[in-house]
Write a structure and sequence with these properties.
The structure is a single chain. The protein has one domain. Helix content is 80%, strand content 0%. The protein contains 3 helices and no strands. It is rod-shaped. It is mainly α.
Length: 82
């Protein structure tokens, strides 16, 4: 009996995930797209902050120009927008 209940619950959850909690499935796609955009936005904002900190370190003399170029290239390689 437990297997039947767990099977029904599992089937329900799989069907719910497959339809995206809607009858046409568009809201799941939009939700995934919105979540991806938020993730990319947060990542790019962090990269922007790192570049600003790097520029401040260069101006203050904590790092030299060569180190600045190396670290800036590393940040830009991980960035989607260049």
């Amino acid at each position: 009996m437990k297997k039947l209940v767990y099977g029904c619950i599992g089937l329900f959850l799989v069907s719910l995930a497959a339809t995206g909690c809607s009858s046409d499935g568009r809201s799941a796609g939009l939700g995934a797209l919105g979540g991806a955009a938020a993730g990319v936005g947060g990542y790019e904002y962090n990269a922007h902050r790192e570049k600003k900190k790097l520029e401040d370190d260069l101006r203050s003399g904590k790092i030299d120009r060569r180190e600045y170029e190396i670290r800036r290239d590393q940040i830009e390689k991980g960035s989607i927008f260049r």
